[in-house]
Structure of Oxidoreductase:
Amino acid sequence: MSLTNLILVFLFGSVVSYLLTKSNRVLGSIFNFLLTAYALYEIWNLNINYSEKLFGLFNNLESTFKVTYLGKYFALVSMIIISFVAFFIIEWIKKKGIKPAAFNAFMLIMISGVLGVFFANDLLTLYIFWELAVLGSFLIVPMGKEDSKKAAVIYAVTSAIGSYMYLYATFAIFKRYGVLSFEQVSQQLVNDSSLFKWFIILFIASAGIAKSGIFPLHTWLRITHGNAPDAFSAVLSGQLVKMGSYVLAIAISVFPTVQMFSSFYHGIPLLNYLLIWLGNISILIGTFMAIRQNDMKQLIAFSSIANGGYILVGLGTMNSIGYAGGLFHVFNHAIAAAMIFLSFAAVVYRTGTTKIDEMGGLIWRMPWTFVTYLVGIISLAGIPPTSGFISKWMIFSALVNKGMFITLAITFIGSVGSFLYVFRPLAGVFLGQLKRKHADVKEVPGIMLIPMLLFVVLVLFIGVYPKPVLDYISSIEKVLGIKPISYSGFEIVTPLGKWNTLTVFTMFAVGFIIATVLYLIFPRGKRVELTDQYTGGDYLYNYDLYHYATGFYRFIERLYDRHPSFEKLYGMLAVFFRSIGDIVTDLIYKPSPSGYVFWISVVILIIYWVRW
């Protein structure tokens, strides 16, 4: 099937999905899953460099699709996430108080936009499908919590900031060069010696910065992830945020900044270096703010800001191992974030809350959900033998090789901080004492568990055998003129040494077996109920008297209690512009006929004055 027809199938399929879900919400969700699974199969079999015309533009310009290694890589990662989540939704959608027909229809509209973005061969086509993807997701976000409508507006406004800067750059390119295709624009920018190319790269990168949640356009992630429908948060963080990483990859490497700008620091252009520092700030903000969160979805939302910073740092180095690490982290964070958000969706499905201090001890009621979360956070924190370690190790190696020790220190702080914030839901939600109100909670149905456990298998498999992902990354680097990463089978080679994934996995497996044997041999600890103890000489008579997840990292949080807040800054700006709007409204929209006659007269006089 051609790419155009595949996208049309999703667009027309949204109508079919709406009607099917109206009759039976499960039937419509099954249709969505089958369609996404089929799309994954079709994309997997696409031939590189295959292209097709979409429609004609003015001045003989054509809008075209083209399959590139970079686009196919992002599309495959996206469709893996979306198809797994679509399977999860089959059961999840039964209980949620959303509008299931609209939810399923908007999901397919969003997917059609996503595919168009990754296979667009020119700037204008990418923009059209970008807005289509944003529209579909924007319409889904308000189906979540009470504040979800406000979250949707913030999401749309922040996305629009990047989108319009991108569109302005597109028009400027066409006016100056008369071309829009990526290849032709790249050639023109390389040969342009003016400051115009600075403006172009920064404005195009702004769309990626906004969608990735990179500082300073990061504030939308917390409220949007926290209020979006629980299962959709897995798509929002695991896939839609990666659209931003894709545009950043275009701005940095498809438009080769290394050739366009002179070296500033160890072969890194100044523009790339500035973007890397935006990534550094994102890592610090995302890490320290994640530590503070009591809402588990908002916690991982801040984690997405930090991991978006890792991706930008890796891509910005334009180094063989660093660029590969950035692309590998796109895969790792997409999978890890999706499995963590699905595990949270499962918890909310049974408990009805996202507050960490309102839960506890769920490991005894939801063990497989716990396993999914545990493996997800191990990968997110970059611990072997999961795939999450590989990408962070590659980025660290590139930074050491480049002598970027400040950035290395920041990324290391981010990794240490990730251990802290992922432990908070682990201890507060799954470990500790089970609350009485959750005594009857049980594991989610098998249909919801299957995609969660498949994610677990995928993370461990790629952690042991990363070759399938590295094959794509190596091909991307060859096409972009970057020296391909060196690897063979289970071994990855960097200037600082080698990493054998099979050896590491074997060591961890042996250690796990030894720990299991010791656990089975030695006596187990006695389980003590919360009320079977005392404090300060008094027995605890109230089962829910306290929860140690409250103020979990208070000793750290108080160090930056009075941190500057961009959310407050943007809130002040919003209030200011709203006030200006109210003033203009009061001046123009008069409730009396005389007011309208007055302003009509003013407009007529201005028209006559301009004409004269």
The radius of gyration is 26 Å. Residues 82 and 105 are 14 Å apart (CA to CA). Strands lie at 51-56, 62-66, 263-265, 268-269, 486-488, 491-494, 497-500, 534-535, 538-539.
